[in-house]
Amino acid sequence: MTDADGNPIIGATVSIKGTTHGVTTDIDGRYVLNNVNEDDIIEYRYIGFNTEEKTYKGEKSINIRLVESSVSLDDVVVIGYGQQKKESVVSSLNTISAKELSMPTRSLSNNIAGQIAGVLAVQRTGEPGKDNSEFWIRGISSFAGGTSPLVLVDGVPRNMNDITADEIESFTVLKDASATAVYGAEGANGVVLITSKRGTSQKPTLNVRAEFGVSQPTRLPRTLGSYDYLTLYNEAVWESSGNPTDFTAPFSDEVLELYRTGADPDLYPNTDFSSLLRDNTFNERVTLNLRGGSERVKYFVSGAFYHENGIFDSKAIDKYDANIGLSRYNLRSNVDIAVTKTTDLSIDMSGQYTDTSNPAYSTDDIFGQMYYFAPHIFPLRFSDGTFSEPSIYNGETGNPYNKLNESGYQKQWNANLQSKVTLNQKLDFITEGLSLKLAGSFDADYYSATKRTKTPTTYRMILNENGEKEYIQINEGNPDLTDFSGAGTGGEKRIYLEGSLNYKRIFNNIHDVSGMLLYMQKEKQSQGVGLPYKKQSVVARASYGYDNRYMVEGSFGLTGSENFAKGHRYGIFPAVGVAWYISNEKFMKSTEDVISKLKLRASYGLTGNDNVGDTRFPYRGSLNRGGAGYNFGFNIGSGGGGTNNPGGVHESTFEAPTLAWEVEEKKNIGIDLGLLRGQIDLSADIFKNDRRDILMQRKTVSGMTGFRSNPWQNFGKMSNKGFDGNIVFKQNIQEVALTFRGNVTYAKNKIVEYDEVEPRYAYQRVTGNSLNKPLLYIADGLYTDDDFNITEDPTNGQKTYSLKEGLPKPAAGVSPGDIKYHDLNEDGRIDSYDRTYDHDRYSENPEWVYGFGLNIDYKGFYAGIFFQGVANASMNISNLIPFRQGQTTSARREAMTSHWSSHNPDNQDVLVPRLHNNYFEHNHYASTWWYKNGNFIRLKNLEFGYVFDSKMLRKIAMKNARIYVQGNNLAVWDDIKMWDPELGSAGASKYPINMTWTVGLELGF
How confident is the model at residue 613 (pLDDT cuts 50, 70, 90)? Predict the structure, then answer.
């Protein structure tokens, strides 16, 4: 017995119809059935395949080929607490395969940007181990509570970055109320369902994949060398002093030449901080999985190893590597046992072990110092190897070389154990289609961290009165790794229990009825004295489909959380969804060659969010003693001693017994459309989500009440609306197979109600604006000579500028080339009342995310390309201003190539306004001048490879083999062009995002 591809089917049942006489196929798909009479009907059955019947006519052997049943895995989607036929779905959801998530990265969350309609994701750092992307489903709907979606791996809340793409069978995103209401107070932010692979009733297959990758930063900030830096600084001093003709530069041509030639790198350094970074880093990945079984027992076993190095070029002299290093090991075992014909038992075990090492200082600290200091201040090390150190400037000190190489290291290991047992019992003896499911899981995490530090003895160099070099000690160090500060351990355990009654039955091939009643409870306990978090839910869902044309589904989640006061711990979150499969109507039969699928969907419901802050039991009040407060008298000293004041008492937090979760009202309308007999498949949804009862501290309670702090209340409201959609187009041109896919998501939020003190001007109200939209001055370009009355000193040509009458006066004295702000309230002054939310800039989080790609297959060769982009995002580039702390702070190359100059005053098409040789607050104001277009499009993935012919491989006992080359983050197009735009405004001092080229080999046996 074989499948359609000729592979043997193991454990299939071969029996004489109407009797109990039967056998099962062996590992090669063979069977022997004795005592068969002529005209007996032999029945061939196997899960997932259509049953075949054959009338026996005396043959000595009968070979049979089974065809997969019409309800294949591709026709079934994962929904909340169950599965459903794709054609019966009324909800808004999207499912992608593990293949689309397989990219050369450690973090699964970094692979979803632009891949799934409805998901907005951004990566804010490239640091190994901390590079997980932030992502939201249909945007952000709360300014106070948690905004991350609920992530379930095999039905249990878990970290999606702990699982590898090779372990995943399906990745589903639930977006509307009909899909998420069953999760009650945890469903408002959307739900991600990840299903791991399971065994099959076939001959065991071993799959091995090995990858080796080379990475380098996509883009690093470009800073000036000492010569260019000091030349620019001379210009800044000249511009700041009124352009005198008798100007004496702080750094003479002779001194500049010493910096340019590098003749004495100790006294005239030209420090290239990028020398602390390697040109390339490397990563390796190996995965193995074994899959197979029989009709009785099925199994999937996998293991994976991943290693990645950081970008630092460590030169630590002790026996440790100060560079970042990360190694991760994954193990998984999923076993399904058919205990009886009606009882199935599943036992799942998985674990992850991660070992990380880092410099003693954080990477943000090291990168921050690399891009903070000017190149001429100090060398990384003096030429004789002595450790250098800058002098202290405004509290900033620290040679990044010393922080990386001479300050010690941090190490941490994390171990996670995850287990789950599931029992499925058919209850057809009660009524056909009824079943019972019981599941329980136990997860435990543990970590151990060590930090060993040391400090080098550091110096700066001067020329003494004799013109000789002399060291001045800055710090007396301790070169031994004796400090064990930062060591610690911790952990967490989680228990999850679930039980459900399920019903699924089709009557007369027309009426499709299903239902579910479920109870769930879970507990989370951190190591130590922390109190456990406990939740419980009762969930119900019922659906009805008529003739595959009309579908209706209703559900609700009754959720309880002990984090709220009694009487406010439970909430009901109902939802309803309907669908009309128009293409299954008789009147559509004539159009099926053009419109192969047409389905309309609509849903409405309520979901909740109980992640309303980190405070445990936020409804409880608390009192503080000491300091100012209500005073209840004095303590009288004993033995005739004096009195003393014990201190006052005041409310730290007001009791708020009515606090509860946020509630979101979700509305969704969608369409699924297939054209040209499935050649084109698309879906689109429009949605509107209204969040209410957002927890916030009241701001309009007057201080006249005498309260030290204002009370908390479920007060705020936000709305979030938009649309998302995806399209797949397939076309075969002779032997060339083409597949185009694309998706887009748009989500725009608005703060509807926010308790704020009414500002003097309506344009400064938070209410009515999107979340995190910046409050900015409006820049009207740069000041010109025409804006000033100019006087010139006849002795040296030094100019003095005073603004003409009628022009608004800023707080600081300005000159041509400084930023000119709009006087919004027309009071003749530029001050904080001229800041506004009414402008065309956005927050850093994009409103648009999209992706599109093309795959080509030809005779075993294949290639794929995928682009990802964002729009309606802004980025603050004010850190481009040079000399923020005088000549000690660095300057970007763009500051030299694109700044306003008195030599060319009419050119206002520049990035940087007039140069100042120190901090000039007026030009630093948050304004539309500095908030630039943060949109970008990225070449996210490029892959090409060859799949070897299966017939040839069978001759050498192999089932499949492919070799491939894959590139990730290969190029990015944007307006900023200074650092990777996905890092956001802080990207100039962040660990960079990497581009990676990977070579891989996959073998199947």
Answer: low
pLDDT for the residue numbered 614: 66
For 218-280, list the strands marked E by DSSP. none
Q: Tokens standing for 340?
A: 């009886």
Helix (H, G, I), strand (E, B) or coil at 294: coil
Contact 807, 818 (CB under 8 A): no
Average pLDDT over the chain, rounded to whole?
90
Helix then strand then coil, % of the chain, to nearest 5: 10, 45, 40
Please determine, for residue 52, whether its predicted confidence score (pLDDT) is greater than 90: no
**449/105: higher pLDDT:** 449
Give the whole-angstrom CA distance, residue 229 versus residue 225. 6
Whose CA is closest to 291, among 959, 945, 964? 959
| Element housing 178 (H / E) | helix 177-180
Q: CA dihedral defined by 583, 588, 594, 596, rounded to 10 degrees?
A: 20
**CB 863 within 8 Å of CB 841:** no
b/e per residue, 493-522, with b = 16+ CB within 10 A? bbbbebebebbbeeeeeeebebbbebebeb
At residue 676, φ and ψ (nearest 5 deg) are 55, 50
Task: Reply yes or no on whether the pLDDT at 395 is more than 50.
Answer: no
Domains and CATH numbers, the chain: 1-69 (2.60.40.1120), 74-196 (2.170.130.10), 253-490 (no CATH), 528-625+653-758 (2.40.170.20)
Residue 221 has pLDDT above 70, yes or no: yes
Averaged pLDDT, 965-991: 93
Cβ distance 285 to 305 under 8 Å? yes
Which residues, 6 or more positions from 983, have their beta carbon under 8 angstroms from its beta carbon?
A: 123, 124, 125, 126, 990, 992, 993
**pLDDT above 50: residue 70:** no
Q: What pLDDT was estimated at residue 110?
A: 87
Report the alpha-carbon distance of residue 62 to residue 44 in Å, rounded.
11
Tokens of 123: 């990566």
DSSP-derived secondary structure letter, 388: B
Contacts of residue 579, Cβ cutoff 8 Å, sequence gap at least 6 = 89, 90, 550, 551, 552, 599, 600, 601, 602
Tell which residue, 234, 170, 159, 174, has the closest CA to residue 197: 170
In angstroms, rounded to a whole number, what is the distance separating the alpha carbons of residues 174 and 725? Answer: 14
CA pair distance 35, 16, nearest whole angstrom: 10
Contacting residues for 588 by C-beta, under 8 A, at least 6 apart: 582, 595, 598
| DSSP string computed for 131-148 | -PPEEEESS---SSS--S
The mean pLDDT value for 148-170 works out to: 93
Distances 101 to 97, 165, 288 between C-alpha atoms, Å: 7, 6, 17
Does residue 712 surpass a pLDDT of 50? yes
pLDDT tops 50 at residue 396: no
- Nearest C-alpha neighbor of 183 from the set 146, 147, 156, 160: 156
User: Long-range contacts: 106-109, Cβ < 8 Å, 24+?
Assistant: 106/131, 106/161, 106/283, 106/306, 106/308, 106/326, 106/328, 107/131, 107/132, 107/133, 107/161, 108/160, 108/161, 108/163, 108/164, 108/165, 109/133, 109/135, 109/160, 109/161
pLDDT band, residue 39 (cuts 50/70/90): confident
**What is the average pLDDT across 109-138?**
90
pLDDT digits (tens, 9 = 90+) for 806-862: 999 999 999 999 999 999 999 999 999 999 999 999 999 999 999 999 999 999 999
Cα separation, 304 vs 306, in Å, equals 7
Is the separation of the CB atoms in 268 and 226 below 8 Å? yes
Structure tokens at 252: 């003479």
Distance CA 717, CA 518 (A): 31
Q: What is the pLDDT of residue 484?
A: 72
In the predicted structure, residue 792 carries a pLDDT above the cut 50: yes
Helix, strand, or coil here: 524?
A: strand
